[in-house]
Amino acid sequence: MTRGPQPVPPRVHAHHASHTRLLSTATVRSTRPAGVNAVIVPTARPFGYLRDAAELVKDLNCQLIVLCSKWADAGRALDLAADVGVRAVTVDVEHDQPRLPDLRTSSMLTEKGWRRFSRRTDTSLKRNVGLALARMVGWRFVLFLDDDIRVEEPGDIWDAAGLAETHAAVGLVNHGFPDNSVVCHAHRRTGGIQGTFVGGGALVVQVNRTTSFFPNIYNEDWFFLLNGHGIDPVTMVGKVTQKEYDPFRDTVRARGEEFGDTLAEGVYALLDDGKTIDAADAGYWASYLQVRRDFIQQVLERLPRAAVADEAERRRMAAALAGAHGRSLTITPDLCVDYLHAWAADRRHWQSWLGKLPHKPSAEAALRYLGLKPHVA
């Protein structure tokens, strides 16, 4: 039997420095809506990091939800909220694991051969708790806010909520330390042009519109913004600043980010070029993985000429990039395809689970339903 011409998988020829073409046009209304119902802060740092968020909640006249683990303490967080004078519910997510759906995107990375790709942070877990909580209580808009981000003008959150009337999510524009991966930070530091995109660190979500979840992977917020084929309507407005940190402190961060950064950048490169997620087959990933490795190698080659603080920083950058490149060499096209299949199945599972959640009269009642022990002022 003679077979007809087979479709040629799309190819990416270079790193995409920006994905802003995927954003919807933001037109802020002259009249503002009621704002957000709550500010949800996933935190693992000491309680003092919450003061900016608490002050913002006071200005917005809404509720503060603090999801704690590691160095964060639910009791101390509640004391700080009381000191600022805001309504708050805090909970220790680490000690009382929440009852959320079992997700294949998490379990597959614990299996033999793939464990190096598992992510040992709980930010995704906390944000998913926030989504479930908001759905049960019946909130309309919530702001996800990281504890290292400061909102310059509370009115920007009102504007974001207004835009969320017609968008699945609205990000706040980061004018502080750029929200990039280690590899993309190095790209910028060595003279490359590198943009940023909508991030979960300052994100207003229309609760009833979204049926997505945050997978436990780096760039989980980029995956949250996707539907089955492309990106939901999202935009950006306002201004926030993120505190600075050293992305090259060790190689652990770069290695841990590489799988999620590769997947997200690869998917968004397809969308930039007018394709859909369905085009991300094994042939595409074979091409994109080579593009990614070449990109990291090019940044490494520019490093000797980069304007860095000192030779020690140059060595840290080189080690981090080498770590990312080494991890990239262990990523296969089949793993990328399998992960995206698992992610698509998880989206359907999460959507079904959300639809069966009962209504609860308060945030503390919703958290108890999820198996958590809230602290309430």
Write up this protein.
This protein has 377 residues and is of the alpha/beta class. Helices cover 41% and strands 13% of the residues. It has twelve helices and nine strands. It has helices at 51-60, 74-84, 104-107, 123-137, 155-163, 182-189, 220-224, 251-272, 282-302, 311-328, 333-355, 363-369; strands at residues 38-43, 63-68, 87-92, 141-145, 149-151, 169-174, 202-206, 234-242, 375-376. A nine-stranded mixed beta sheet has the order 5-8-6-7-4-1-2-3-9, sandwiched between helices. Strand 2 (63-68), helix 2 (74-84) and strand 3 (87-92) form a beta-alpha-beta unit. Helix 8 (251-272) crosses helix 10. It starts with 37 loop residues before the first strand and ends with a strand.
Short overview:
By secondary structure, the protein is an alpha/beta fold. It has twelve helices and nine strands.
Q: What tags apply to this protein structure?
A:
377 residues, 13% strand, disordered N terminus, 12 helices, alpha/beta, nine-stranded mixed beta sheet, globular
What pattern of helices and strands is seen along the backbone?
EHEHEHHEEHEHEHEHHHHHE
What proportion of the residues is helical, as a percent range? 40-55%
Structural class: alpha/beta
The general outline is globular
Q: What would the average pLDDT be, to the nearest integer? A: 92
Order of the strands making up the biggest sheet: 5-8-6-7-4-1-2-3-9
The count of helical stretches stands at: 12
Low-pLDDT stretches: 1-9
β-strand percent reads 5-15%
Largest sheet: 9 strands, mixed
**How many extended strands?**
9
The value of Rg in angstroms is 21 Å
